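FIELD: query
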Amino acid sequence: MEFVVEEGKEPRRECSTLLLPALSIGNVGQLAVDLLVSSSRAERVGFLDDPNILPCVGNDAYGPIPCGELALPLEAYESPSNALTLIQQRSPVVQGMMVEFAKNLADFAAANGKEHVVVLSSLDFGRWRHIDMSSGLQIYYLSSAKPDGTDDYCEQLGWKRLQEYNPDQRSWQFLSSLAEGNDVQDSSYPFEDDVEEEDYYPSLPFAALFSCFKAKGLKVTCLLCYCSEGDNTSDAFHLAESTCKLLGLSPDNFCVEEKWRIPYSWKTVYGPPPDMAIF
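FIELD: result
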């Protein structure tokens, strides 16, 4: 993975917290990062070039008008006032290369002095076993703070550890071995044949990112929410607000005119409105 610094910009070492999405159902992690980039007025400082990401190109996502500035698959933003580096991922990983991609990101984070990595992702509502909506939308977490994935501060915030995480289960162990660079025989790969229900969560992108950042000795926290496909903007707001709680940030201080600054790209997130003449 190559980090290409934008002309005239210089990355700041004090931006020691790294925030990034893990692609999943509803793209909630990406939408939440969009909100945080836009609202904190983070500036783009460079691009990440990785062979495991499918190429794509688009228009600027955050400007008030379409200015013709190109957006690429992996972009790095910084908010020095919040000591925050944000990575936005706009295209999927090549099939079968998620662990390699996660290793490259972990190498980048370690080489650039990141101390805490926060991964934002969504989970399939159809696989939620113990549904509890008594207090509204639920946030689940997974942390490297303790071997069992728990974190005292996350518990104080009222969040629950992802119940499906079991470091002794075969798929989680296999993922950890891959992340640590151990020589694992292809025949022992548990995700190909004889797939069981407990193998599902370790097969998701957030799990690979969590395992690889952890293997590098970095503190990593995954914030997760269950959702369905559709209009997931409310889930994105909830995940972004939870991120601010975790990092001790105040969204009220982001923007003078409003709490959250809606990205320009959200205006056409489902395409332009239909021509009313057809009716």
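FIELD: remark
Residues 233-247 form the longest helix (15 residues).
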